[in-house]
Write a structure and sequence with these properties.
This protein has 404 residues and is α+β, with helices and mostly antiparallel strands. The protein is 34% helix and 26% strand.
C-alpha cells in the first residue's frame, strides 16, 4: 500500500506491448491521452523465438487492423502467405477440402515482426513506450485501488510508475495475474499444443490449412506453409495424454515428442514428419485454455490474453486481443473524462466484451466439443454434410461489427 498523493507519469499505464497492449495505447494516444506502454521484451534484438506461435489473423482481426490503420500491403514484413481453404483428414480416413466463404482468407503472421510494427505505431501515435522493461508488481493506494506499477529493467532496481488507470495486457504469462491469483483452469479443455517450425514438410499445398484428426485422446495436428522455407504445425492433445506419454517415454522437446506420439497414433503422418526438416525453435503451450476470475478492479483492466483464453483453433486469438483493446480504450476514455476510476466505471468494457465476443466464443466451444467426439467427426466427413461444415466455418470466421 502507498499513502499520500504522487505525481502521475501518465494517465494510463499499459503493461505488455503485444497486440492487446499496443492497440490499447494506439486508441488512447489518438484521443490525446498520456499513455506509458511498458514491454518486457527487447525489440532491438531479433530472435528466432520471436516467431512465437506463428499465429494467424482471422477476417475479424483484419478488420481491427484496418481500424488501426496498420499497413496491410502484401509487402508488410509481418504478413506471410494467406490460406483460403481448410483440408480436414477425419479419423475414418476420409479427407475433405472446404473453401472459406468468398472473399475471406486468414493471414499468417510473423508474430515478432507484427508485434514490433504495432509497438512502433503506438510510438508514432504519441504513446511513450519502453521495451526491455518488466513489470513485477502493482501499486495500490490506501483504499486498495491500483494506482501504478513497479518495474525491473535488466539488473537495475525496481522503479515505481504512477497512473490512475493500469491496463494489464501482458498475456498468458502475466506476472500480475499470478500475483493476484486470478488465473483459473478451463475445466473442459485441458489441452497442450506443441508448436513446431520446419524448413520443409512434404505434400503441403500453399493456401490450404491442414487439420488431421487422429483417433483417440482428442488429438490433432494442424498447420501449413507460411512462406518459402518456413512451415508451422501444431500437435494438440489432451494434457493428461501428453503427461502419461511423457511418463512412459520421457520428456522430450516439442518436435521429438510430436514424432514419438505420431509413431504411436498415425504411422503415415509419422513418416511424413520424419521426412520433414525441423528448424531449431519450437514452443509448448499448456494448458491452452484458462479463465480469469475478475478482469476489472478499481484502477485496473485486464485486456487480451490476460483477460482469459480458450483455444487457438479458429485463429481468433489476435482478433480477441484487438477487440478487447478497442473496447477497453473507449471505456477508459469515459473514466478519464469523469475522473472516476472505480470498478463500476469499467462496466461498459464487460458489456462490450459480451456483445462482441460471446457468439464467437460459443461457436468455438461448440467446435471444440465436436472435435472431442470421434463418431461426430466421422459423420461430418460425408459429402452430404458439406453445407453443415460450411455453416460452422462461416459462423466462426465471419467478421463481426464493432459495438463501439
Amino acid at each position: 500500500m502507498m499513502s499520500g498523493p504522487r505525481k502521475a507519469e501518465a494517465e494510463v499505464i499499459i503493461v505488455g506491448g503485444g497486440p492487446a497492449g499496443a492497440a490499447t495505447a494506439i486508441h488512447l494516444a489518438r484521443r490525446g491521452r498520456r499513455v506509458l506502454l511498458l514491454e518486457g521484451r527487447n525489440f532491438a534484438k531479433v530472435r528466432a523465438a520471436d516467431m512465437r506461435s506463428g499465429e494467424v489473423l482471422s477476417p475479424g482481426g483484419q478488420a481491427e487492423i484496418a481500424r488501426l490503420g496498420l499497413a496491410a500491403q502484401p509487402s508488410a514484413d509481418w504478413r506471410l502467405l494467406p490460406f483460403e481453404a481448410i483440408r480436414n483428414s477425419w479419423p475414418n480416413g476420409r479427407s475433405t477440402l472446404d473453401p472459406l466463404p468468398h472473399g475471406l482468407a486468414f493471414w499468417q503472421t510473423d508474430r515478432g515482426c507484427f508485434d514490433r510494427a504495432m509497438f512502433a505505431l503506438a510510438r508514432a501515435e504519441g504513446a511513450e513506450v519502453q521495451d526491455n522493461c518488466r513489470v513485477s508488481n502493482l501499486l495500490r493506494d490506501e483504499q486498495g485501488a491500483v494506482c501504478g506499477v513497479i518495474t525491473k529493467a535488466g539488473d537495475e532496481p525496481g522503479r515505481e510508475y504512477y497512473a490512475p488507470i493500469v491496463v494489464d495486457a501482458s498475456g498468458r504469462r502475466s506476472a500480475l495475474l499470478a500475483r493476484m491469483k486470478l488465473k483459473q483452469p478451463e475445466p473442459e479443455f485441458q489441452r497442450i499444443a506443441l508448436v513446431c517450425f520446419y524448413e520443409y514438410v512434404p505434400d503441403c499445398t500453399p493456401g490450404v490449412w491442414e487439420q488431421h484428426f487422429l483417433t483417440g485422446y482428442n488429438t490433432a495436428i494442424k498447420g501449413t506453409i507460411m512462406r518459402e522455407g518456413l512451415y508451422r504445425f501444431s500437435f494438440e492433445t489432451d494434457l493428461a495424454f501428453r503427461n502419461s506419454f511423457a511418463a512412459r517415454r520421457g520428456k522430450q522437446v516439442p518436435h521429438a515428442m510430436t514424432l514419438a506420439m505420431l509413431e504411436e497414433l498415425n504411422p503415415i503422418l509419422h513418416q511424413r514428419f520424419k521426412a520433414a526438416r525441423p528448424l531449431p525453435y519450437s514452443v509448448a503451450y499448456a494448458p491452452i485454455g484458462y479463465r480469469v476470475s475478475r478482469i476489472i478492479q478499481d484502477g485496473l483492466l485486464q485486456v487480451g490474453d490476460a483477460a482469459g483464453y480458450l483455444d487457438p483453433s479458429t485463429g481468433q486469438g489476435i482478433e480477441f486481443a484487438l477487440r478487447t483493446a478497442r473496447l477497453a480504450a473507449a471505456t477508459i476514455e469515459q473514466a478519464l473524462l469523469a475522473h472516476d476510476y472505480r470498478q463500476s466505471q469499467f462496466a461498459p468494457y464487460l458489456a462490450g466484451r459480451r456483445r462482441e465476443m460471446t457468439e464467437a466464443l460459443n461457436w468455438l466451444r461448440l467446435y471444440l466439443r465436436m472435435t472431442r467426439q470421434r463418431p461426430l467427426l466421422n459423420l461430418f466427413s460425408h459429402k452430404y454434410l458439406a453445407p453443415a461444415r460450411a455453416l460452422m466455418v462461416r459462423s466462426m470466421v465471419k467478421p463481426r461489427p464493432a459495438s463501439f
